[in-house]
Amino acid sequence: MALRPPAVSENDFPRLTNNVVVRPISGWNFAKLTDVMVHRVHNGEPMTGEANTARLVFSDGCRNPAYKVLAPFNPWRDDGNGLINNFDFRVFMFQAMQSGDAIMITAKVMACVEEIDCAPVKKIRNFLFGFYI
């Protein structure tokens, strides 16, 4: 189970909490949140490229260590319900954002019958680069 983020203090940046809930239809028992992306939206159109997108969570369900300041914790599963996943990250703007621009958040959710199929990937500490892989 992943560590939970601390409570937000008055001096902290505002946080956005993604709560992903899968309904227990057809026998689903567990869920996993992956591929969380934040996109800059300009004139109603999502922008592409590194300057206008941020991949906060990889396809293995681990947060991107490049954005540790914005997302210090991996997504975590609710203790009481395996179909609920949470992910907190700090609110931010892209440098090139203009008045009227917005952000769009996309993510993938995988539902599983067996817990092992939605289990977090074991992370190995990479001491050379200082992050988990």
Classify the beta-strand content into a percent band.
35-45%
Order of helices and strands: EEEEEEEEE
- Poorly predicted tracts of residues: 1-5, 129-133
> Count of DSSP helices?
0
Mean pLDDT, all residues: 82
Task: From the alpha carbons, calculate the radius of gyration and give it in angstroms.
Answer: 16 Å
Largest sheet: 4 strands, antiparallel
Helix fraction bin:
under 10%
> What is the first-to-last residue Cα distance?
17 Å
**How many β strands by DSSP?**
9
Number of domains: 1
The secondary structure category is mainly beta
Principal-axes geometry comes out as elongated
Provide an overview of this structure.
The chain is about 0% helix and about 35% strand. The radius of gyration is 16 Å and the shape is elongated. Strands 2, 3, 4 and 7 form a 4-stranded antiparallel sheet that branches. The protein has strands at about 15-20, 30-40, 45, 55, 75, 85-90, 100-110, 125, 130. The relative contact order is 0.29. By secondary structure, the chain is mainly β. It has one domain.
